[in-house]
Amino acid sequence: MTELKYDDKGLITVVVQDWITNEVLMVAWANEEAVSLMKSTGYTHFWSRSRQKLWKKGEESGHVQKIKCIQTDCDGDTLLVRVEQTGVACHTGNPSCFDEVIYGDKSQTMAIIPDLKRVIEDRRRNPREGSYTCQLFSDETRMCKKVIEEAGEFALAIKDKDEGEMAWELADLIYHSMVAIEKSGLPMEKVYAKLSERAR
C-alpha cells in the first residue's frame, strides 16, 4: 500500500466526491489524526487551517458525509474520498462547493447528471402541476413505454449514422431512464456493482 505523504504542516489534501454521481463536492485538508478518524468512524474528518482544530463534516449542520471509499493518488499526497452526502456539502447551501464557473462552459460536461438527478428527485418529493416528470411519475405504464420508445429511437439513430439525432435520442433515453430509476427506487450502487463484475 502506498505510504501517505503529509506536507510540512502535517497535512494532506482531501478531495471529496459524491459516490453515486462522481460530482466533486469539496476539497479540504486532513492530518494523520483526521485520516485515522475517517477510517475508524466511517465519516469525514478534517483539519481546519483557519481554526487550527479537528472537525467532523456536518457536526453542526447535520450534513455529514458517510465514507464509501478512500483512495490515494500515485504520489500518496492526495486523498480521494467518495461519500454519501447528507444534505448539501457547501456552507453556502449549494450541493457542491464548486458552483461558480470562471472560465468556459460546463453545459457540455457531465455536470448535468447530478443537476438533473436533483431536479428529478425534487419533482418526486415536491410534485409540480404541469411538470412532465411528475406526469411520468404518476403513470408508470407511460413511463416504462417511454424508456422502450427512446431506446428504440436511439438504436435507429445509430443505424442512420446521424450524430445529431443520436445525441438527441440518447439524451431522451438517459432522462427517461433516470426518471424510472428514481420512481423504482433502484439503488445505483447495485447497478455499479454489476458493471464492476463485467469489467473484470
Q: Which descriptor suits the 3D outline? A: elongated
Beta percentage is 15-25%
Q: Are there runs of 5+ residues with pLDDT below 50, and where?
A: none
Q: What is the helix fraction of residues, given as a range?
A: 40-55%
Following the backbone from N to C, one meets helices and strands in this order, namely: EEHEEEEHHHHH
Tell how many strands the DSSP assignment holds: 6
Specify the structural class. alpha+beta
User: Which radius of gyration do the C-alpha atoms yield?
Assistant: 20 Å
Q: What's the total helix number?
A: 6
Task: Characterize the largest beta sheet: strand count, sense, and whether it forms a barrel.
Answer: 4 strands, mixed
In spatial order, strands of the major sheet run 2-1-6-5
Spell out the blueprint of helices and strands.
Layout: E1 12-18, E2 24-30, H1 32-41, E3 45-48, E4 53-56, E5 65-72, E6 78-85, H2 112-125, H3 132-138, H4 140-159, H5 163-184, H6 188-198
Parallel strand pairs: 1-6
Antiparallel strand pairs: 1-2, 3-4, 5-6
